[in-house]
Specification:
- The protein is mainly alpha-helical.
- It has two domains: 54 residues, no CATH class; 61 residues, no CATH class.
- The protein contains four helices and two strands; from the N terminus they run H-H-H-E-E-H.
- It is elongated, with a radius of gyration of 23 Å.
């Protein structure tokens, strides 16, 4: 494989636990593979069921994906610049905070709402 994902070690390409169907990189054998599995529906269903059990129901759930992205962002933050979360954040001479405006949103809020802004009322 040219691309590596954190879950590639879970790929099983043959046997009773098979959960993916490998094809050539240029897809030259794709039509043959599709034809084979269309005529062997029980085998195709077994592979699809195994794939759903391993990936959809366990390793690639929305919670697991959010955990992956959170870890990626935190790792990136370790080697990146320090962001400023607010605009206009300063302590006044009297020790009170000046008016501040939030810049951006936390990843978890974006993942939950799937929007960059929303009404709170």
């Amino acid at each position: 494989m040219q691309w590596i994902q954190p879950h590639h070690y879970l790929f099983v390409t043959d046997g009773p636990q098979q959960n993916i169907v490998e094809v050539e990189r240029d897809f030259s054998d794709l039509e043959d593979k599709i034809g084979y599995y269309l005529s062997h529906e029980t085998e195709a269903e077994r592979i699809a069921d195994n794939s759903a059990k391993v990936f959809r129901d366990r390793y690639l759930t929305p919670a697991a994906e959010a955990c992956y992205w959170r870890k990626l962002f935190r790792g990136w933050a370790e080697v990146s610049f320090e962001p400023e979360f607010y605009q206009g954040t300063r302590l006044s001479v009297g020790g009170q905070l000046e008016l501040r405006e939030w810049r951006g949103i936390p990843f978890e809020s974006y993942a939950l709402m799937q929007a960059l802004s929303w009404s709170t009322s």
